[in-house]
Write a structure and sequence with these properties.
The chain is α+β, with helices and mostly antiparallel strands and 140 residues long. It has helices spanning 3-11, 19-41, 43-65, 69-98, and strands at 103-107, 114-118, 122-127, 134-139. Strand 3 and strand 4 (134-139) form a beta hairpin. Helix 2 (19-41) runs antiparallel to helix 3. It is elongated, with a radius of gyration of 24 Å.
């Protein structure tokens, strides 16, 4: 039996690598590098970083070797939802920074949706495309 066949038979029925385990492994690696850098500055900070790196490494190994696939998939699903939310908020923040000279962003008072308006000074009546609420906005 080859090494590949042994590995495949060992991993049969286990969770394996998913997006969350890759993230925790990457975080563990980054914290390990940070602890090496911090050793010169402060031993206390390096030990703190090293302990977090060890914790995330253990979590990664636990997730990869876990046989409770249903629970690990649920955890990964929650992680993927949160990462999509964070990515969309970062994209919106980048767009707001890019458009800061030409557009202004306001929230609908009813549904709290973020709406984009041209930067034309004065009072305007706006209609939310989501909830169709009419409201006044004042652009300075």
């Amino acid at each position: 039996m080859s090494i590949r066949e042994k590995r495949d038979s060992f991993m049969k029925g286990r969770n394996g690598f998913d997006k969350l385990s890759v993230f925790t492994g990457t975080l563990a690696s980054a914290l390990t590098l940070l602890s090496v850098v911090l050793t010169a500055a402060s031993l206390h900070a390096a030990l703190y970083s090293w302990s977090w790196a060890l914790l995330f490494t253990a979590l990664t190994v636990f997730r990869v070797l876990s046989r409770n696939i249903y629970a690990r998939r649920r955890e990964n699903s929650v992680f993927m939802g949160l990462s999509k939310l964070a990515a969309s908020r970062l994209r919106l923040a980048g767009r707001m920074i890019k458009d800061r000279k030409t557009h202004v962003y306001k929230k609908c008072p009813c549904c709290r949706a973020r709406l984009r308006f041209p930067r034309e000074p004065g009072k305007h009546t706006a209609v939310c495309p989501i909830c169709e609420n009419r409201f006044e906005i004042n652009i300075k």
